[in-house]
Amino acid sequence: MVTPFETDVKWESFLKYGTRQFWKRKSVIYKQGTLGEGFYYLHKGLVKIVSTTVKGNDRLLNIVVPGQIMGIQSMDQQTHFTSAIAAKNSVVYHFSCEQFQEMLTVQPELLYLLTQTIHQKMRTLLFAINMKALTSEEHIATLLLNICDEYKNYEVPLTQQDLADCAGLTRITVYKILKQWKVSGIVEFRNRTFTIIDPDLLRTTVFPDAEDTFSSTCAR
């Protein structure tokens, strides 16, 4: 699978510029409302991005999988407007603004790639925030389509249990939804993971009135 950054740049070669961090499951990597400085790259594990409502409830907005970055909205050294919580024991690399400047001297193209990623994540968060109430089916569909759009690939690097843990649903609920989508020809089970056969069909099936909300960026 390929992320926007990995298309032209091998992130592994830049990890030396970052600070390696280990976060246990359920640990808060960065918290909404706190000052940010730089961004994070997820090397191993699984992280969920949530937004805390005025009532103090956490609302899941997105899932970050290995090879993706997070927290880039605070590159201007302002406060984070979301929180990142480790859904599994995770290894991340933090890149300060100063470290990123060093990276740019080696690979100037990083600036353009970072801008692309920020744009994609803003669209992802905007869609999630604008949804007044997500059903379990809509929640899972949103997460899968976000991953598909960022990876440009149908294969989802998550197990059913991963989805359940991040979405706050039971594994049985996730299984029933995916089983229904399998019958409809939307997804296919392979070992302990699954593949989105037709993301456009998933969009129109779950969000019939919002076909243009997501961009169709998965390559067949």
Automatic annotation (TrEMBL):
Keyword Lyase: no
Pfam family of the protein (one): HTH_Crp_2
One Gene Ontology term, aspect cellular component: cytosol
Keywords, ordered alphabetically: Activator, DNA-binding, Transcription, Transcription regulation
Keyword presence, Transcription regulation: yes
Stretches assigned to the Cyclic nucleotide-binding domain: 20-121
Domain of life of the native organism: Bacteria
PROSITE patterns noted in UniProt: CNMP_BINDING_3, HTH_CRP_2
Record-linked InterPro entries: cNMP-bd_dom, cNMP-bd_dom_sf, Env_Response_Regulators, HTH_CRP, RmlC-like_jellyroll, WH_DNA-bd_sf
HTH crp-type domain residues: 134-200
An MF annotation (GO) of this entry: DNA-binding transcription factor activity
Protein name: Crp/Fnr family transcriptional regulator
